[in-house]
Recover the amino acids of this structure.
């Protein structure tokens, strides 16, 4: 027993002595391996010196490339910044007709040239840069600029007869040569720049498109936006320009695309199937002019109310249905009276007007065997005043010369009554990548989409010389009709696509009443091809 205990004690003593030595040997071996690895790295670096080869990426470098590579979000020190953009490059061609709608130098004396708007041209239609900052989990700010909006010499689409003073969608005055326009104030009457801006007739800063702050995640199902942005009026106007099926919006879509300064609440329920908006806005320029980035002209604010419902949504058999309605209304003008002739503001015949506009829309994307087909339509009614000295008077009785005394013939309406304008469109298309043939169709066929749209708008305004009651204050409205056929080729969805549209434009000339106003039929068809990249 004593002998056994002695053997155990000897073994324990040996282990105590040997263990540190083993540790030292192991440590020495690890250090030796490290030193050998360093020598190999140094040797490899010396071999690569002067060579075009590069060092292999480490795991850290690979992780960094993944974090900041394509599709990754750019981050900042105090929040998360996302940068986006949209580039649209157009080529357009027009029928050659250098005489515009009101041109009648030998009859009414109106000189209305179209020579600057019937030229084929390349164009940067949009060059947007969008900066979205999530500064807090409940606060997002957005700034969007578009340097391409500074250009003002390009014609409008689909109707290239519009004037430069309004939203470029209404034909209300002669378009004379650019040299005379520049010398006489743009052909918008003899009022100064300041008064034109106050009354909605002048140009405003165009570079800044959106600048707003969105507050979300606090009130359940609701968010709040304040700043400059598109009010939720109609469907096509507020929709992102990236996601348009046609190269350009319809005429009423272009009207409701305009931004405004204000505050808007948005509610959303049942997986986005019920949404509504309430807001207050300046509407400084009125509904027939732009409201972007300009001071309000009175203390009153316009009220917005809109609702959208989707009774059927993403059903494989029956498809999707969307219905919507928007209302906007307020008082435009400042002097507190209703008669523009009796109570002018700052020497300009413009006063308070009870303005309002309505929009209703519907869209349907069927499912089942006709999946890939879609239908959409929208109607708008707008009641407001025209800016002073912007509506042509063929009789010469209006009292205001368009060009401040230059004397080209034809005068402008002075103190017109408010008018009510209506317009609508109906469109349809078939997208092969969404159809039942998507899986069996050849790859070259899948990206195509075929489109058609019909639209009309009362966008031609002249003084109603036949009016028995107010021959200079009443305005006669004529409508322009447009048939559009289009083809889209999607390279990478809406992020990269090519669109081509041909617009058959029927200006208001029927050989009856229009002849009494001195109008002529204009060869006004045009073709657009849009090359788009969005990110």
């Amino acid at each position: 027993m004593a002998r056994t205990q002695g053997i155990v004690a000897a073994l324990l003593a040996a282990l105590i002595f040997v263990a540190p030595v083993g540790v030292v040997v192991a440590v020495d071996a690890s250090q030796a391996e490290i030193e050998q690895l360093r020598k190999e790295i140094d040797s490899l670096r010396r071999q690569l010196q002067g060579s075009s080869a590069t060092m292999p990426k480490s795991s850290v470098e690979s992780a960094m490339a993944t974090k900041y590579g394509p599709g990754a979000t750019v981050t900042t020190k105090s929040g998360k910044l996302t940068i986006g953009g949209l580039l649209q490059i157009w080529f357009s061609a027009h029928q050659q007709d250098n005489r515009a709608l009101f041109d009648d130098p030998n009859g009414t004396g109106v000189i209305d040239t179209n020579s600057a708007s019937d030229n084929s041209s390349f164009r940067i239609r949009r060059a947007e840069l969008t900066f979205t900052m999530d500064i807090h989990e409940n606060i997002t700010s957005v700034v969007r600029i578009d340097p391409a909006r500074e250009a003002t010499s390009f014609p409008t689409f689909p109707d290239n007869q519009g004037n430069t003073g309004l939203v470029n969608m209404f034909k209300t005055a002669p378009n004379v040569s650019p040299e005379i326009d520049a010398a006489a104030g743009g052909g918008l009457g003899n009022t100064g720049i300041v008064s034109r801006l106050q009354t909605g007739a002048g140009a405003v800063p165009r570079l800044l498109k959106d600048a707003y702050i969105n507050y979300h995640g606090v009130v359940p199902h609701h968010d709040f936006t304040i700043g400059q942005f598109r009010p939720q009026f109609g469907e096509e106007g507020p929709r992102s320009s990236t996601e348009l099926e046609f190269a350009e919006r319809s005429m009423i879509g272009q009207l409701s695309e305009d931004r405004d300064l204000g505050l808007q609440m948005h509610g959303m329920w049942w997986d986005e199937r019920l949404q509504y908006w309430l807001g207050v806005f300046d509407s400084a320029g009125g509904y027939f002019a732009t409201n972007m980035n300009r001071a309000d002209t009175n203390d009153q604010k316009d009220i917005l109310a809109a609702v959208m419902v989707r009774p059927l949504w993403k059903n494989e058999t029956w498809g999707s249905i969307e219905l919507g309605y928007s209302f906007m209304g307020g008082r435009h003008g400042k002097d507190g009276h209703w008669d523009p002739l009796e109570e002018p503001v700052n020497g300009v015949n413009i006063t308070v007007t009870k303005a309002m506009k309505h929009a209703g829309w519907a869209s349907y994307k069927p499912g089942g065997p006709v999946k890939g087909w879609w239908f959409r339509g929208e109607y708008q009614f707008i009641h407001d005043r025209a800016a002073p000295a912007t509506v042509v008077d063929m009789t010469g009785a209006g009292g205001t010369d368009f060009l401040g005394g230059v004397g080209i013939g034809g005068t402008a309406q002075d103190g017109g009554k408010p008018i009510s304008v209506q317009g609508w469109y109906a469109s349809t298309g078939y997208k092969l990548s969404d159809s039942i043939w998507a899986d069996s169709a050849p790859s070259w066929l899948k990206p195509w989409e075929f489109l058609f749209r019909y639209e009309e708008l009362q966008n031609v305004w002249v003084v109603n010389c036949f009016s028995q009651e107010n021959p200079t204050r009443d305005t006669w409205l004529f409508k322009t009709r447009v048939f559009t056929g289009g083809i889209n080729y999607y390279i990478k969805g809406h992020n990269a696509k090519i669109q081509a549209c041909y617009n058959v434009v029927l200006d208001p000339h029927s050989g009856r009443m229009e002849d009494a106003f001195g109008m002529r039929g204009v060869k006004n068809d045009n073709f657009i091809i849009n090359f788009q990249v969005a990110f």
